Amino acid sequence: MPIDLEALTNDPHPVLRACRESSPVLWVDELDGWLVTGYDEAVQVLKDSGTFTVQDARFSTARLTGESMLTVDGAAHSRHRGAFAAPYRPAAIRQRLTEATRRIADGLVVARADRASIEVLSELAQPLAIAVLAETLGLPRTSAAEVVEWHHLLAAAFEADAAGRPAAVPTRALDELRSRVLETVRRTEASPLLDAATSGADPLTVEETVGNLAIMMIGGVETVEGMIAHAVQYLWRRGADPLAESPDALDERAVDRAIEESLRIEPAAARLDRYATTDIQIGAAQIRRGDLVMVSVSGANRDPRQFADPDTFNPDRANLTRQLGFALGPHYCLGVHLARLEAREAIFALRRHLPEAHLDVRRSETPVGLIFRKPRRLTLAVR
Ligand code: HEM
């Protein structure tokens, strides 16, 4: 079945529906691999990292940033991920970052309160994600402005590579990260994050630590922007605001469910790539060893066999927690609790300080992107 890549980038859901109806695991010539749009099939691929691995020379991440938890599987993956797990556990995030995240989100929104509008991506979501990341990493002598710069250098390399233009390794960002890591290792009062990575029974090397920090800088910004933008888009859509009818418009659980449902219906990380380590059959698909297998999270999250009436935004779904926006299996998002905290605080800050805000449809766009998805601009009129 021929696929229109432009449609898959700009308006993917009808294309993904047609793919799934043809076969939940479909060979796509234009992408030179298998596209998985069925929910059960996506779960099977993501859970089984022995058969569907990230560890393949074609996966550009390792070339661009060095080895990290996202480029290896098996025991090596457990070693990398184990080093960073503690500071990202829910209690650690709650204790260490709730107040800081709220302060940063409030500050960004209050700064727009006397203006006519706020552009949610550039004036709230991106600066929030970057400032929180700077806070999380706790690197010595590092300002949010430097983290912004490193993020842009890393993101530009990834974007060029994903667009089929072989990218140069983002050397300067990696060199600067390396020098901060070395400094942290030498200091006595290290950050909780790097402390965990560079001590213990089997500490990571400086290069391995840098690789993982670089992954967090990509994984922790682009996706947060998409997640916040999509949640705002659904919540502020005129006449379709499920919270407007809620007795307490700032009810935390209602906001969390709305965020989760917006992640189901429009996941910020839309496609996850794996490589088959062996010949394997899924349904009618005969996958060969070495084949690229692309899990379409956007497709799986709208599989009607799993989510009834999948194109409708419904935060009251009983099985909402099954959505795959943070993936599943060994590479399940490390930053999931931080991401949810950021989205919640961004929405609370908007509701607290800009109660009259409404979506300015003329200055807002729908999400685009093949792998990372977000709108180019999303504007709330403040009055
Ligand atoms: C809404 C925001 C976010 C979304 C939608 C998201 C989504 C994802 C997804 C889908 C994966 C799996 C990738 C794969 O299996 O190929 C992943 C992995 C990862 N995410 Fe996130 N992420 C978000 C925020 C964050 C944040 C804030 C951080 C924090 C630094 C983070 C750090 C990571 C890391 C380190 C991995 C690799 C985990 C591993 O390989 O074991 N993410 N994320």
UniProtKB/TrEMBL annotation:
A single Pfam family it belongs to is: p450
Read off the InterPro entries from this record: Cyt_P450, Cyt_P450_B, Cyt_P450_sf
Q: What domain of life?
A: Bacteria
Q: Which terms does the record give in the GO molecular function aspect?
A: heme binding; iron ion binding; monooxygenase activity; oxidoreductase activity, acting on paired donors, with incorporation or reduction of molecular oxygen
Coiled coil (UniProt feature): none
Q: Describe the family membership recorded for this protein in Swiss-Prot or TrEMBL.
A: Belongs to the cytochrome P450 family.
What is this protein's name? Cytochrome P450
**Naturally occurring in which organism (per UniProt):** Antricoccus suffuscus
